Automatic annotation (TrEMBL):
Gene3D superfamilies: Ribonuclease Z/Hydroxyacylglutathione hydrolase-like, Winged helix-like DNA-binding domain superfamily/Winged helix DNA-binding domain
SMART domains the UniProt entry points to: Lactamase_B (SM00849)
SUPFAM superfamilies noted in UniProt: Metallo-hydrolase/oxidoreductase
Name of protein: MBL fold metallo-hydrolase
Organism: Sphingomonas daechungensis
Pfam families membership: Lactamase_B, WHD_BLACT
Length: 284
């Protein structure tokens, strides 16, 4: 993707897969949310994005007079699903994909708050597919970033939502974010044979299996680092973040704390650390 981010324009990535970039850049969304259009004669709209009038208008222009087979959402964070309802109202298309999920406590970023208005016409289970323009679009359940997260397989391409991003590691924040589930979902993708990943944020990933292995190694290294730190002395999450992420952008400190907490909760379940109040120590 070019640095000058061509917002609100339809860009063809390969036959039958194109994208429109929403103008919602941030420290968490990179240049913004990429909405994908699958198909040519008819289309599915994947991750319609934030409810921004200019983005919805851009999607309607990109769709033109083509039939919309479905509006599909990977998960229900507010930078992914809110445009589904106005787009459905404008076109009559059905909303299909992840299950509804809305929590009161949503972690460190405003744009990641859950979309409480999301109401799908059909929820896809792992392995379920719909036909779009003669091709199957198949749901691949990938819980971890959120418990309701899906990826969508189109031939040998995989639309990965926020489970795998092309520019950064994924934020995993309890209570809904689950590090053990996230790692299991990464391993699930590692065992697939996709040619390319198309994330909701960041450039395409042309070597998916190698990239997924690198993400898993990164998380295992972070886990070992956290274990070393709490073995030195009991620590709370802010102390772990300060030592594990030196020089971290202040905008990302809360998100890093969420991921550290997700690691600690997983380690606690595996009886490798113990918690006393807000302080964590290595298990005896």
């Amino acid at each position: 993707m070019s640095v000058d981010a061509p917002y609100e324009l339809l860009e063809a990535l390969e036959p039958g897969i194109a994208r429109v970039l929403a103008h919602n850049p941030s420290a968490f969304t990179y240049y913004g949310t990429q909405t994908y259009l699958i198909g040519e004669e008819e289309v599915a709209v994947v991750d319609p994005g934030p409810d921004l009038p200019e983005h919805i208008e851009a999607l309607l222009r990109a769709i033109g007079d083509r039939r919309i087979a479905a509006i599909m959402c990977t998960h229900t964070h507010r930078d992914h699903s809110p445009a589904a309802r106005p787009l459905a109202d404008a076109t009559g298309a059905l909303i299909v994909g992840c299950a509804p999920l809305a929590l009161e406590s949503v972690g460190p970023r405003a744009d990641a708050a859950f979309d409480g208005d999301y109401s799908p016409h059909r929820v896809l289970e792992d392995g379920e597919a719909i036909e779009v323009d003669g091709r199957a679009v198949t749901a691949v359940a990938t819980p971890g970033h959120t418990s309701n997260h899906l990826c969508f397989a189109v031939g040998d391409a995989l639309l990965t939502g926020d489970h795998v991003m092309g520019w950064s590691t994924t934020v995993v924040v309890p209570p809904d974010g689950d590090m053990a589930a996230y790692m299991a979902s990464l391993d699930k993708l590692r065992q697939r044979h996709d040619r390319v990943f198309y994330p909701a944020h960041g450039p395409p990933v042309p070597n998916p299996q190698r990239y997924v292995r690198s993400l898993m190694i990164h998380r295992m290294q972070r886990e070992n680092q956290i274990l070393r730190l709490v073995a030195e002395q009991p620590r709370d999450v802010p102390d772990i973040v300060a030592n594990a992420y030196p020089g971290l952008d202040s905008r990302l400190v809360a998100a890093a704390g969420g991921s550290v907490l997700a690691h600690l909760v997983d380690l606690e379940k595996r009886a490798l650390v113990v918690r006393e109040g807000e302080t964590w120590s290595k298990a005896a």
